[in-house]
Structure formats: C-alpha cells, structure tokens
Amino acid sequence: RQALMKTECVLLEPYCSFTLTLPSSVLSRALYDLDQRKASVEISDQNDETMVISGRGPLRTLNNYQMEVNAYTRGKGKWSAVSDGYDVCLSQDEIVAESGYDPEADLRNPCGSVFCAHGSGYYVPWDEADELMHVQPVRERVSTYRRVSAYKVQEDDLMDVLKRASGNNRNDSKHDMCKPVKKTDEETKPKKPVMKKKLPPCLIVDGYNMIYSWEEYHELADQDITTAREMLIDELMAYQAYLKWHMIIVFDGYRVQDNYGTRQKMHDVEIVYTRTNETADEYIERITRELRDTYEMTVASSDGLIQNAIFAHGALRMSARELQSRMELLKKQFV
C-alpha cells in the first residue's frame, strides 16, 4: 500500500454486456438513456419496426434499467444483461469523494511502515519510508548470455536418429502425397475485384437544427420562424442546384395537432414536414433505413443522438457548422 500511495491509483468497477430489443420509434430515447449511463453501444436493425442495441457499460448505472425500458416501450422492449468483468470507473473522483475514504486514516489497512530500532518498532508514514531505509533495494542484473557449444553431426548419423525416432516401418512412398500440387493457369490468374455499385448522393438536412445552429437564422427565428424557414429553404435549394445531389429537407411537425404530415417536391429537392408525434430524428432514422440501397446518404445535423442510428444504416454525418462553412465558401467563389 505504500507503493500504491506513491503512484496514481485507478478505481475499477463491475461492467456488464447487454442487448436491448425495442421498437424503432423509441430508439432516440434509448440512445439518450444509455449515453447518460456511460454505456458504449452498437445498433443493428432487425426489421422495419424493431431495432437491436448491444453494448457494454457500468453495472452501477445500468442496474434495474429493465424497469425503465418496460415503461417507455409499454412492455414491448426486451432487456438482457450479463456480467462482463471489471473496467475503469468513469466516475472515479465522484465516487471516492462520496465515500469519504481516507487511506491515511485506515487503521485496518495502513499505508505506512513499521521500522525497528533499539529492539522495538515504530510507525513511519508512507512518504517518509524511503528516506529512513538504511538498506536500499538492489536489483540484480539478469544475464541473457547463454553459452552455446557447436557440434558437427554427419548426415548419415542424423538420418539414423530420425529413423529410430519415427520407426523403421515408415513408407517413404507416402512422401509423394505431400508434394505440392501444381496449380493450373486458371487458378493462378488474379481474380477481378468485385466493384461495389456506386449510388447517387443524397443530402438529408434537419431543417430546424440548422436554423437554431446558425446564428443568423437563430436570431430571425426568435421573431419570425416562418421567414427563417423559407430563407433556409431558398439557400439550400441554391446549394443543391450547384451540387446536383438529391436533397431532403426535414422539419418537425410533431407538435401540431391532427397533422398528417406533408411532402413537397421541387425539382430534385424534397421538403418534408413530419406528422403529429413524429420528430425529425425519427423520420431521418426511418428514411435512411429505407433509402440505404438507393442513395449514398449524408445527414446534416448537429444532434449527437442520431449519429449511431444513421451510421448503422450506412449514412455519413455532417455537422451544422460544416454545412454552413461549405455553403459560405461556395458563395465567395461566385461573388
């Protein structure tokens, strides 16, 4: 323990591996919960309605999570977890501070040493022990040198030894079976690599995420959200006309009562307003799953919760700031 006091200690805690199966409509909620519980996750889609999340995290934060899964999935979610050893505690400072443990006050497991002097022992604190040692530790050198004696062995003697070791009844003709088989010309020809079909690009934009991430539109949205939305659409359509990509702009409509959702198409740009009780994140998760074999998709959003979901569907992510920088750079080229 005196040696531990001289170095930096790392607190370990029990971890568990888990699998969570749940409806795709509550995927964002599950990802947020697991992120708050400091769990690492991977997503795979089972079908259009069900998603599977697997991962690993601290047992301390994931214990009894099944009760919350039952609540927000209304009994449709399935949670299973197994013990997965120990790993570094991600909240070490908070846990140690909360426990109030003081190693120097631990009398059952002291970190100091007992030295002997004049026939009796006395206690020495851990930070003074090295100075009071009268015999310093000596490390012996371990020699890696090894004496090797060389002997000359005749080939006939070596063959006799091998025969005695393997038996005299060995059939030498069996060696012919081990000879390498000469490959034909067809087998030696290099195979042509299978080229993956190149899909047309598609940019999916989280509309309101852009508005509230870009300062100029954020200030305007506080006064007139409709004008800010129309100006963003005009600017994105001009950007699409240069890129020649298919573009889908998604706006939240989940707070509007009795809203069935709308979809407008202008040239190669689709403008989507989600229906009641459907967020833009949920729509983007669904559309990336449906179009993954049709387009090479890039999702423009600064929402970190959607990141794992779109990666599972083969889509790339672009932040709101990156999209704004690209559009501003394009403007400067034509000014």
Summary keywords:
335 residues; alpha/beta; Alpha-Beta Plaits; Rossmann fold; six-stranded mixed β-sheet; four-stranded antiparallel β-sheet; 14 helices; 12 strands; extended
Describe the structure.
- The protein is an alpha/beta fold and 335 residues long.
- It folds into three domains: 2-94, Alpha-Beta Plaits; 104-132, no CATH class; 201-334, Rossmann fold.
- Helix content is 36%, strand content 23%.
- The chain has 14 helices and twelve strands.
- It has helices spanning 2-5, 27-36, 59-62, 65-72, 92-99, 129-132, 155-166, 185-188, 207-213, 215-221, 225-243, 280-290, 307-312, 320-334, and strands spanning 12-23, 40-45, 50-58, 78-88, 113-117, 120-124, 201-206, 246-251, 262-266, 269-273, 296-300, 316-318.
- A hairpin with a 2-residue loop joins strand 9 and strand 10.
- Helix 9 packs across helix 10, helix 9 packs across helix 11 (225-243) and helix 10 (215-221) packs antiparallel against helix 11.
- It is extended.
- The termini are far apart.
- 19% of the residues are buried.
CATH class of the largest domain: Alpha Beta
Could you give a short account of the major beta sheet?
6 strands, mixed
Gross morphology is extended
Strand content: 15-25%
- The whole-angstrom Rg is 34 Å
Strand order of the largest sheet: 9-10-8-7-11-12
| Beginning-to-end CA distance, first to last residue | 69 Å
Whole-number mean pLDDT: 80
Order of helices and strands: HEHEEHHEHEEHHHEHHHEEEHEHEH
User: Which structural class is indicated by helix and strand composition?
Assistant: alpha/beta
CATH architecture call of the largest domain: 3-Layer(aba) Sandwich
Please estimate the helix content.
25-40%
Number of strands: 12
Number of helices: 14
User: How many structural domains can be distinguished in the coordinates?
Assistant: 3
Low-pLDDT stretches are none
CATH fold name of the largest domain, please?
Answer: Rossmann fold
